[in-house]
Input
Amino acid sequence: MVSAGDKAPGPRQREVDSEKITINLGYVDLGHIDLMVRDGFYANRTDFIRTAIRNQIDRHAEAVRQSVTRNVLDLGLRRYSRAELEALRDAGEKLDIKVLGLAVIADDVTADLARAAIASVTVLGALHASPAVRAALADRLR
Output
């Protein structure tokens, strides 16, 4: 397990900046990690895994940048408010959500509003939305 935080923020909950994941490793790989932790190269297993992931992201940074540009993705945190979605709906337009990072659909967005204003959802990372909105958009998630 890498880090904590996969719940959508409530009114008093702080916004999380990470997502919890689980990975399976072979015993030999895990032993190598534990050896490097024991010898002080890393603070713990999580530190090793985060460092390895960041190194791979850095290694492929140019290819990722080109892909983000080619796919017209919003990078980082993107919030979608009720007012923004109501304006789109009222204008007869629909939104194609494309985010690399975290997409947050506000808690006060209803399932009906989401269906009326959102044509598709592509999130490479995490999507935080109410269970009702997730269900309403289930056929639009890519």
Q: What stands out?
A: The longest helix spans residues 45-59. Residues 1-14 have pLDDT under 50 and may be disordered.
